[in-house]
Design goal:
The protein is mainly beta. Helices cover 4% and strands 53% of the residues. The protein has one helix spanning 4-14, and strands spanning 45-48, 54-62, 66-74, 80-86, 94-101, 107-113, 122-128, 134-140, 147-154, 160-167, 173-180, 186-192, 199-207, 212-222, 225-234, 239-244, 252-260, 266-273, 278-282, 290-297, 300-307. Strand 11 and strand 12 (186-192) form a beta hairpin. It is globular, with a radius of gyration of 19 Å. The protein starts with a helix and ends with a strand.
Length: 309
Protein backbone atom coordinates (compact mmCIF):
# COMPACT_ATOMS: atom_id res chain seq x y z
CA UNK A 1 0.00 0.00 0.00
CA UNK A 2 1.26 3.48 -0.86
CA UNK A 3 0.13 6.30 1.41
CA UNK A 4 -0.46 9.91 0.42
CA UNK A 5 2.90 11.13 1.67
CA UNK A 6 4.66 8.56 -0.52
CA UNK A 7 2.77 9.35 -3.71
CA UNK A 8 3.17 13.08 -3.14
CA UNK A 9 6.93 12.64 -2.96
CA UNK A 10 6.95 10.45 -6.06
CA UNK A 11 4.82 12.82 -8.11
CA UNK A 12 7.00 15.72 -7.06
CA UNK A 13 10.03 13.83 -8.25
CA UNK A 14 8.52 13.23 -11.68
CA UNK A 15 6.34 16.25 -12.32
CA UNK A 16 7.70 19.79 -12.42
CA UNK A 17 5.94 23.11 -12.01
CA UNK A 18 5.96 25.12 -15.23
CA UNK A 19 7.17 28.71 -15.16
CA UNK A 20 5.65 30.87 -17.87
CA UNK A 21 7.97 33.51 -19.29
CA UNK A 22 9.33 34.44 -22.68
CA UNK A 23 12.06 36.72 -23.97
CA UNK A 24 11.11 40.31 -24.88
CA UNK A 25 7.55 39.98 -23.62
CA UNK A 26 6.27 42.23 -20.85
CA UNK A 27 3.39 41.18 -18.62
CA UNK A 28 1.44 43.63 -16.50
CA UNK A 29 -0.23 42.17 -13.43
CA UNK A 30 -3.93 43.04 -13.47
CA UNK A 31 -5.19 41.30 -10.35
CA UNK A 32 -4.36 38.71 -7.70
CA UNK A 33 -6.99 36.77 -5.76
CA UNK A 34 -6.63 34.55 -2.72
CA UNK A 35 -9.38 32.09 -1.97
CA UNK A 36 -9.92 28.88 -0.05
CA UNK A 37 -7.82 27.44 2.75
CA UNK A 38 -5.78 24.69 1.07
CA UNK A 39 -4.30 21.69 2.78
CA UNK A 40 -0.56 21.04 2.63
CA UNK A 41 -1.05 18.92 -0.51
CA UNK A 42 -0.32 21.31 -3.37
CA UNK A 43 -2.39 19.70 -6.11
CA UNK A 44 -4.07 22.41 -8.19
CA UNK A 45 -4.82 23.29 -11.81
CA UNK A 46 -6.46 25.96 -13.93
CA UNK A 47 -7.92 26.52 -17.39
CA UNK A 48 -10.16 28.98 -19.24
CA UNK A 49 -13.64 28.38 -20.62
CA UNK A 50 -15.21 29.38 -23.94
CA UNK A 51 -15.73 32.92 -22.59
CA UNK A 52 -12.05 33.19 -21.54
CA UNK A 53 -13.02 33.11 -17.87
CA UNK A 54 -10.64 31.46 -15.46
CA UNK A 55 -11.53 28.14 -13.81
CA UNK A 56 -9.37 26.80 -11.00
CA UNK A 57 -9.41 23.64 -8.94
CA UNK A 58 -7.55 22.63 -5.81
CA UNK A 59 -8.71 21.99 -2.29
CA UNK A 60 -9.90 23.80 0.79
CA UNK A 61 -10.05 22.72 4.42
CA UNK A 62 -13.60 22.50 5.77
CA UNK A 63 -14.40 22.01 9.43
CA UNK A 64 -15.49 18.44 10.10
CA UNK A 65 -14.78 17.38 6.51
CA UNK A 66 -10.99 17.66 6.16
CA UNK A 67 -10.00 18.90 2.67
CA UNK A 68 -12.64 19.21 -0.05
CA UNK A 69 -12.15 19.63 -3.78
CA UNK A 70 -12.58 23.34 -4.55
CA UNK A 71 -13.71 24.63 -7.96
CA UNK A 72 -13.81 28.39 -8.60
CA UNK A 73 -14.81 30.47 -11.62
CA UNK A 74 -13.50 34.04 -12.00
CA UNK A 75 -14.67 36.73 -14.39
CA UNK A 76 -12.20 38.82 -16.38
CA UNK A 77 -11.88 41.35 -13.55
CA UNK A 78 -10.93 38.64 -11.05
CA UNK A 79 -14.29 38.55 -9.28
CA UNK A 80 -15.52 35.14 -8.18
CA UNK A 81 -18.53 34.20 -10.33
CA UNK A 82 -19.16 31.08 -8.32
CA UNK A 83 -17.32 28.66 -6.07
CA UNK A 84 -18.16 25.06 -5.18
CA UNK A 85 -16.53 22.57 -2.85
CA UNK A 86 -17.09 18.84 -3.10
CA UNK A 87 -16.82 16.34 -0.25
CA UNK A 88 -16.51 12.65 -1.10
CA UNK A 89 -18.87 10.14 0.43
CA UNK A 90 -16.32 9.01 3.03
CA UNK A 91 -15.97 12.53 4.47
CA UNK A 92 -12.17 12.31 4.18
CA UNK A 93 -9.69 14.46 2.24
CA UNK A 94 -10.38 15.13 -1.45
CA UNK A 95 -8.05 17.01 -3.81
CA UNK A 96 -8.65 18.61 -7.21
CA UNK A 97 -5.77 17.83 -9.57
CA UNK A 98 -6.82 18.71 -13.14
CA UNK A 99 -9.56 20.66 -14.90
CA UNK A 100 -10.79 21.14 -18.48
CA UNK A 101 -13.86 22.70 -20.11
CA UNK A 102 -15.89 21.78 -23.20
CA UNK A 103 -17.48 23.83 -25.98
CA UNK A 104 -20.70 24.23 -23.99
CA UNK A 105 -18.93 25.74 -20.98
CA UNK A 106 -19.21 22.57 -18.88
CA UNK A 107 -16.35 21.97 -16.46
CA UNK A 108 -14.72 18.61 -15.73
CA UNK A 109 -12.52 18.13 -12.69
CA UNK A 110 -10.32 15.13 -11.95
CA UNK A 111 -9.46 14.61 -8.32
CA UNK A 112 -8.12 12.18 -5.75
CA UNK A 113 -10.76 11.11 -3.24
CA UNK A 114 -11.30 8.59 -0.48
CA UNK A 115 -14.38 7.50 -2.38
CA UNK A 116 -14.57 3.75 -1.76
CA UNK A 117 -11.99 3.36 1.01
CA UNK A 118 -11.18 5.41 4.12
CA UNK A 119 -7.41 5.19 3.60
CA UNK A 120 -6.82 4.75 -0.16
CA UNK A 121 -7.43 7.29 -2.93
CA UNK A 122 -9.63 6.71 -5.97
CA UNK A 123 -9.75 8.88 -9.08
CA UNK A 124 -12.95 10.92 -9.21
CA UNK A 125 -14.38 12.83 -12.16
CA UNK A 126 -16.81 15.69 -11.50
CA UNK A 127 -18.89 17.55 -14.08
CA UNK A 128 -20.28 21.06 -13.46
CA UNK A 129 -22.39 23.14 -15.80
CA UNK A 130 -21.29 26.69 -16.67
CA UNK A 131 -23.21 28.06 -13.66
CA UNK A 132 -21.43 25.77 -11.20
CA UNK A 133 -24.17 23.18 -10.69
CA UNK A 134 -22.81 19.67 -10.13
CA UNK A 135 -24.13 17.37 -12.86
CA UNK A 136 -22.59 14.09 -11.73
CA UNK A 137 -19.62 12.51 -9.97
CA UNK A 138 -18.05 9.13 -10.81
CA UNK A 139 -15.07 7.29 -9.41
CA UNK A 140 -12.46 4.85 -10.67
CA UNK A 141 -11.08 2.17 -8.32
CA UNK A 142 -8.74 0.12 -10.48
CA UNK A 143 -7.45 -2.89 -8.55
CA UNK A 144 -8.49 -1.90 -5.05
CA UNK A 145 -5.20 -0.08 -4.54
CA UNK A 146 -4.48 3.63 -4.79
CA UNK A 147 -5.34 5.62 -7.94
CA UNK A 148 -4.15 9.17 -8.63
CA UNK A 149 -5.07 11.59 -11.46
CA UNK A 150 -2.43 13.84 -12.98
CA UNK A 151 -3.75 15.39 -16.21
CA UNK A 152 -6.82 15.55 -18.46
CA UNK A 153 -7.71 15.99 -22.14
CA UNK A 154 -10.78 15.89 -24.38
CA UNK A 155 -11.39 14.90 -27.99
CA UNK A 156 -13.51 16.44 -30.73
CA UNK A 157 -16.46 14.18 -29.83
CA UNK A 158 -16.55 15.49 -26.26
CA UNK A 159 -15.05 12.42 -24.62
CA UNK A 160 -12.98 13.06 -21.50
CA UNK A 161 -9.61 11.47 -20.72
CA UNK A 162 -7.72 11.22 -17.45
CA UNK A 163 -4.18 9.95 -17.05
CA UNK A 164 -2.17 9.37 -13.89
CA UNK A 165 -0.95 6.49 -11.74
CA UNK A 166 -2.62 3.40 -10.32
CA UNK A 167 -1.38 0.53 -8.19
CA UNK A 168 -1.35 -2.75 -10.11
CA UNK A 169 -2.16 -6.23 -8.89
CA UNK A 170 1.44 -7.49 -9.17
CA UNK A 171 3.25 -4.21 -9.77
CA UNK A 172 3.92 -0.85 -8.19
CA UNK A 173 2.29 2.26 -9.70
CA UNK A 174 1.37 1.92 -13.39
CA UNK A 175 0.37 4.45 -16.03
CA UNK A 176 -3.43 4.58 -15.98
CA UNK A 177 -5.43 6.18 -18.78
CA UNK A 178 -9.23 6.45 -18.63
CA UNK A 179 -11.75 7.43 -21.30
CA UNK A 180 -15.24 8.68 -20.31
CA UNK A 181 -18.11 9.94 -22.42
CA UNK A 182 -19.59 13.30 -21.44
CA UNK A 183 -22.22 11.56 -19.31
CA UNK A 184 -19.60 10.00 -17.07
CA UNK A 185 -19.70 6.48 -18.51
CA UNK A 186 -16.31 4.76 -18.52
CA UNK A 187 -15.44 3.69 -22.09
CA UNK A 188 -12.10 2.05 -21.38
CA UNK A 189 -9.21 1.92 -18.93
CA UNK A 190 -5.68 1.07 -20.10
CA UNK A 191 -2.55 0.41 -18.08
CA UNK A 192 1.14 0.49 -18.86
CA UNK A 193 3.69 -1.29 -16.66
CA UNK A 194 7.33 -1.81 -17.63
CA UNK A 195 9.18 -3.85 -15.02
CA UNK A 196 6.71 -3.88 -12.11
CA UNK A 197 8.42 -0.77 -10.75
CA UNK A 198 6.95 2.75 -10.62
CA UNK A 199 5.37 4.25 -13.76
CA UNK A 200 3.63 7.65 -13.50
CA UNK A 201 1.97 9.44 -16.43
CA UNK A 202 2.53 13.20 -16.66
CA UNK A 203 0.47 14.47 -19.62
CA UNK A 204 -1.93 13.39 -22.36
CA UNK A 205 -2.95 14.56 -25.85
CA UNK A 206 -5.67 13.28 -28.20
CA UNK A 207 -6.10 13.26 -31.95
CA UNK A 208 -9.41 14.00 -33.66
CA UNK A 209 -12.31 12.12 -32.10
CA UNK A 210 -9.98 10.03 -29.96
CA UNK A 211 -8.51 8.11 -32.91
CA UNK A 212 -5.18 8.17 -31.09
CA UNK A 213 -4.47 8.97 -27.46
CA UNK A 214 -0.86 9.59 -26.42
CA UNK A 215 0.45 9.67 -22.87
CA UNK A 216 3.92 10.59 -21.66
CA UNK A 217 5.42 10.12 -18.23
CA UNK A 218 8.23 8.77 -16.09
CA UNK A 219 8.89 5.04 -15.91
CA UNK A 220 11.48 3.25 -13.81
CA UNK A 221 13.85 1.10 -15.82
CA UNK A 222 15.29 -0.26 -12.59
CA UNK A 223 14.58 0.99 -9.09
CA UNK A 224 15.50 4.67 -8.90
CA UNK A 225 16.50 4.93 -12.59
CA UNK A 226 13.82 6.73 -14.62
CA UNK A 227 13.19 6.90 -18.38
CA UNK A 228 10.77 9.18 -20.15
CA UNK A 229 8.16 6.94 -21.75
CA UNK A 230 5.48 7.74 -24.34
CA UNK A 231 2.60 5.34 -24.94
CA UNK A 232 -0.08 5.61 -27.65
CA UNK A 233 -3.51 3.96 -27.72
CA UNK A 234 -6.12 3.55 -30.43
CA UNK A 235 -9.74 4.68 -30.17
CA UNK A 236 -10.62 1.54 -28.16
CA UNK A 237 -7.76 1.87 -25.69
CA UNK A 238 -5.52 -0.76 -27.27
CA UNK A 239 -1.81 0.01 -26.98
CA UNK A 240 -0.31 0.69 -30.41
CA UNK A 241 3.17 2.01 -29.62
CA UNK A 242 5.68 2.59 -26.81
CA UNK A 243 8.72 4.88 -27.04
CA UNK A 244 11.27 4.84 -24.21
CA UNK A 245 14.37 7.01 -23.78
CA UNK A 246 17.11 4.50 -22.86
CA UNK A 247 18.77 5.09 -19.50
CA UNK A 248 22.48 5.08 -18.77
CA UNK A 249 21.83 4.09 -15.14
CA UNK A 250 22.84 7.53 -13.88
CA UNK A 251 20.16 9.59 -15.59
CA UNK A 252 16.70 10.46 -14.25
CA UNK A 253 14.31 11.55 -16.96
CA UNK A 254 11.27 13.51 -15.77
CA UNK A 255 8.82 14.55 -18.50
CA UNK A 256 6.47 17.44 -17.77
CA UNK A 257 4.44 18.23 -20.86
CA UNK A 258 3.62 16.98 -24.33
CA UNK A 259 2.16 18.71 -27.40
CA UNK A 260 1.28 17.51 -30.91
CA UNK A 261 1.60 19.63 -34.07
CA UNK A 262 -0.44 19.49 -37.27
CA UNK A 263 1.96 16.97 -38.80
CA UNK A 264 1.40 14.54 -35.92
CA UNK A 265 4.84 15.15 -34.45
CA UNK A 266 5.03 15.01 -30.66
CA UNK A 267 7.17 17.31 -28.52
CA UNK A 268 8.08 16.52 -24.94
CA UNK A 269 9.70 18.77 -22.39
CA UNK A 270 10.88 18.08 -18.87
CA UNK A 271 14.06 17.54 -16.89
CA UNK A 272 16.96 15.15 -16.98
CA UNK A 273 19.74 14.75 -14.43
CA UNK A 274 22.87 14.11 -13.47
CA UNK A 275 22.89 17.37 -11.53
CA UNK A 276 19.38 18.28 -12.76
CA UNK A 277 20.57 19.12 -16.29
CA UNK A 278 17.66 20.18 -18.50
CA UNK A 279 16.57 18.41 -21.65
CA UNK A 280 14.22 18.90 -24.57
CA UNK A 281 12.99 15.98 -26.65
CA UNK A 282 11.35 15.99 -30.09
CA UNK A 283 10.38 12.54 -31.25
CA UNK A 284 10.35 13.35 -34.96
CA UNK A 285 12.67 16.33 -35.45
CA UNK A 286 12.00 19.96 -34.63
CA UNK A 287 9.94 21.89 -37.18
CA UNK A 288 9.94 25.68 -37.64
CA UNK A 289 7.52 27.56 -35.41
CA UNK A 290 7.77 25.39 -32.30
CA UNK A 291 10.26 26.41 -29.68
CA UNK A 292 11.20 25.12 -26.23
CA UNK A 293 12.88 27.70 -23.99
CA UNK A 294 15.10 26.62 -21.13
CA UNK A 295 14.84 28.95 -18.14
CA UNK A 296 17.38 28.91 -15.31
CA UNK A 297 16.21 30.16 -11.92
CA UNK A 298 19.03 29.79 -9.42
CA UNK A 299 19.90 26.11 -9.37
CA UNK A 300 16.53 25.17 -10.79
CA UNK A 301 15.98 24.68 -14.51
CA UNK A 302 12.48 24.80 -15.95
CA UNK A 303 11.08 24.85 -19.45
CA UNK A 304 8.58 26.92 -21.39
CA UNK A 305 6.89 25.58 -24.47
CA UNK A 306 5.99 28.22 -27.09
CA UNK A 307 4.07 27.54 -30.31
CA UNK A 308 4.22 30.35 -32.87
CA UNK A 309 1.31 30.23 -35.34
Amino acid sequence: MIHLSQITFTLTAVLLTATFATAQTYVNKEWVKNHGAPDTIEWSASTTDMWEQLITTGNTLVSGQYANILVTKFDEAGNISWQQDWNGNKGKSDYGAAVITDNSGNIYVAGASHYSNDSIFDIVLLKYDWQGNLQWAVNYDGTGGADYPVEMAKDLNGNIYITGASEGNNSDLDFITLKYDNNGNLQWASRYDYTQNVDIAADIVTEGGGDQVTVTGGSEDTAGVWDYTTVSYDINGNQISVDREPSDETNIKKPKDIVKDGNKNYYITGRSAVGEQSFNVNLDGLVPGIYIYRIGIGEDVQHLKVIKN
